[in-house]
Amino acid sequence: MDPDFSRLDEYLDENGLDGYAFHDDDSNSNLYYVAGFGAPDPFFAVYTPEQTGVLVSSLEYGRASKEARADVVARHSDYDFQAKREEYGPQAAKYRMVAEFLDDLGCESVAVGDEFPVGTADGLREQGITVDPDPDNVVQDIRATKTEAEIEHVREAQRANEAAMARAEELIRGADREDGVLVREDGEPLTSEYVQQEIEIELLRHGCALDDTIVAGGPQAADAHERGSGPLPADDPVIVDIFPRNKDSKYHSDMTRTFVNGDPSDAHRERYEVTREAFEAALDAVEPGTTGEEVNQAVVDVFEAHGYPTIFTDPSAESGFIHSTGHGVGLDVHEMPSVSHGGEELQPGHVITIEPGLYEPGEGGVRIEDIVVVTEDGYENLTDYEISLT
Amino acid sequence: MDPDFSRLDEYLDENGLDGYAFHDDDSNSNLYYVAGFGAPDPFFAVYTPEQTGVLVSSLEYGRASKEARADVVARHSDYDFQAKREEYGPQAAKYRMVAEFLDDLGCESVAVGDEFPVGTADGLREQGITVDPDPDNVVQDIRATKTEAEIEHVREAQRANEAAMARAEELIRGADREDGVLVREDGEPLTSEYVQQEIEIELLRHGCALDDTIVAGGPQAADAHERGSGPLPADDPVIVDIFPRNKDSKYHSDMTRTFVNGDPSDAHRERYEVTREAFEAALDAVEPGTTGEEVNQAVVDVFEAHGYPTIFTDPSAESGFIHSTGHGVGLDVHEMPSVSHGGEELQPGHVITIEPGLYEPGEGGVRIEDIVVVTEDGYENLTDYEISLT
After folding, report:
1. Which of B20, B115, B116, B243 would you mutate first to test chain A, the one with the most A CBs within 10 A?
2. What angle do CA A350, A353, A355 make, to 5 degrees?
3. Which residues of A touch B65 (CB under 8 A)?
4. How close, in Å, is residue A361 to chain B by CA atoms?
5. CA B68, CA B70: separation in Å to the nearest integer?
6. Which of A27, A39, A209 lies closest to B225 in CB terms?
7. pLDDT tens sequence across A231-267
8. pLDDT above 70 for A211
């Protein structure tokens, strides 16, 4: 993958800045995207239109030299870090070292993401470097538009996702029902934790790691971020939301299905049908030039027409539609563009989720989520998994 | 677990600050430790000696109200975020909202960790809030001393670790040797990826998630952070380094063993024996009042006595002992105290690794790692796993 950094060059030029800097570990996807390298402990990197440099500890030097998309790979010892540390203490020594590294790369002023550590920012400012937080988050914005290779990475993660979802569906639909809960063949209750574990084992077998997995049934499903625990209920919706990360590519996918084993109440059935209608309305709206806000509005319109509250009409709503319609997916499981209030214009190569849901505290919830890529004339659905409640 | 925040109160008092603030997601263990709550998207929290407050989106409000160790749980809609967003744009709206929330908690000045996002720091400063990075990292320092409950969490993660290590050892020692590589029963080469997968499945079955797992053999083992890939070599050391996180408690453990299937060279054997001697010397040095630096020096002394280079005597060394002796382990797999150059005084309740190793580019490496807790009169080794190369 060879990212197109011309927008980054323009940003630096427009703002009169020499480079774009990072100081973070491999949880920072902007850094990974720009430097082509990650490490478990924080390291420093700077992009300039002429060259990219990374500054790492001895421990990471060999790997950085091999892996980083960088013209300059330096290590702490190149800047006499230990001597500086004796003289100035560990923090000030670090800022002095980084300032010297920036000087060697001809950088007197850098843009940084909002998330850049304030300790390093203030430390570099004391060394005379201009550090200018970038409110536009230009690197995230560049990352939002995926290359063909990146889309293929998401596809691969989504195939693993479908295998894991099939395993979850098999466990839930195949369970017996006893005293209102689902029961495994061996007579033990089927729990959220058991289904999560089986999902995650399936993901591992498909080369994926996991952040977390949601298997939430009954009243637990009313909280959209609740992971779920304990025996799963019969006759009630169980939300299964899986968002694996491929270990090699580091790209994610994201999909949700809602399953009932048994006979759901009319209220649950209606919430599912209306959610499905909102889901289809959102997909119909996806095309280049439409904004994420408009796609979200298509969902809100359906829910409102059926009398369900939403946080977009009543920000303090605790039932109904209480989250956004979707989000970008890539190196992060939540990234730009936003498919919500304020969401940007969609462009070909944007990979987004469409995931409306309805929730009722004390009762439960339903959600349906596919992942799609915006194309020149609409979208391609990257998801291949049936949508069915019972 | 009820952390002791008296040191935090002292820090704020000494520095004349009203509170200690966080703006991050659940990857920030300091935030999780103080607020008792994590979320996948960034949220704001502030600790004051009188009360702790968290400010979350509607989506997280229910869970935060239940889970957070907070006296005040507010949500964006309490501060008219949507109206502010229309008026000021998303970033400025966020800073205004947080400034109002701080005002409601009586905070005009806050300490923040070095890693606090500079965008938020600068935004709050524009709103008249003093934001003062804390070079002492007082929350990490408080976290370094574990309660009995926390030590029990590490023990539990370590039991999972031992089960996973046993699975890895069984696969490696039980493999056949063919043309210089290890071979599974089905005739396929035994790869790093296969052993990693089996380790991670075992961890999942024991309630643990994983960050990553190192199974690196032959020349790959010369790079201490290389994960390893491809067929594993016969007759050469394979480093297996496992650092699981218990999903419920979120606490980690960390252990490394090095295995050879076959007949290692004399150079490999010697590196292993000397590493073992350094390992024992380090353990002998662990007791309250000794510094992490002194424990590290015990390792350096053994390696120097046997003629191996170290980065502590030659900072640019690429062979020999090229990383630190150890690190604290808890909510983060790498945390304070440091067992390295500059490492702090050890205190009862510190949980640290002891993990010397020797590496030779082009040939390979060996490492031995246990995890121990410092006690009133020495240490207790939390690791129960045999140490044996062949």
Report:
1. B115
2. 155
3. none
4. 10
5. 5
6. A39
7. 999 999 999 999 999 999 999 999 999 999 999 999 9
8. no
- Choose among A63, A85, A212: nearest Cβ to B225: A63
The two tokens of residue A327 are 């989000």
A vs B, Cβ pairs < 8 A, gives: 143
Cα–Cα distance, B108 to B150 (Å, whole number): 34
* Chain A CB contacts of B193 below 8 Å: 207
pLDDT in tens, A188-206: 999 999 999 999 999 999 9
pLDDT tens, position by position, A326-348? 999 999 999 999 999 989 999 99
Tens-place pLDDT, residues B280-333: 999 999 999 999 999 999 999 999 999 999 999 998 898 999 999 999 999 999
Alpha-carbon distances, residue B3 vs A207, A282, B25, B30 (angstroms): 38, 46, 20, 12
User: Residue B91: which of A62, A122, A135 has the nearest Cβ?
Assistant: A135
Question: If DSSP codes are grouped into helix, strand and coil, which group holds residue B259?
Answer: strand
* Residue A141: its H or E element: helix A138-144
Residues of A in contact with B41 (CB under 8 A): 334
CA B2, B8, B10, B16 torsion-angle sign: negative
Q: How far B125 CA sits from the closest chain A CA (Å)? A: 12
Q: Which amino acid belongs to residue A209?
A: A
With 0-12 / 13-18 / 19 or more C-beta atoms within 10 angstroms meaning exposed / middle / buried, residue B88 is middle
Q: Report whether pLDDT(A1) > 80.
A: no
Angle subtended at Cα A172 by Cα A166 and Cα A173, rounded to the nearest 5 degrees: 85
Helix/strand/coil percentages in chain A, nearest 5? 40, 25, 35
Evaluate if residue B193 carries a pLDDT over 90. yes
- Whether the ipTM is more than 0.90: the answer is no
Residues paired with A22 in a beta bridge:
A45
- Helices B90-104/B118-126 angle, 10° precision: 70
Sign of CA dihedral A228, A234, A236, A242: positive
Under 8 Å between Cβ of A304 and A329: no
Q: Where do the domains of chain B lie, and which CATH numbers do they carry?
A: 6-143 (3.40.350.10), 147-381 (3.90.230.10)
Query: Which of A119, A133, A222 lies nearest to residue B115, judging by beta carbons?
Result: A119
- Please state the φ and ψ torsions of residue A251, each to the nearest 5 degrees: -90, 150
pLDDT of residue A131: 98
Pairing of strands B109-112, B130-133: parallel
- Looking up tokens 């390295």 gives B340
Residue of A86, A115, A327 best to disrupt the B interface, most CBs of B under 10 A: A115
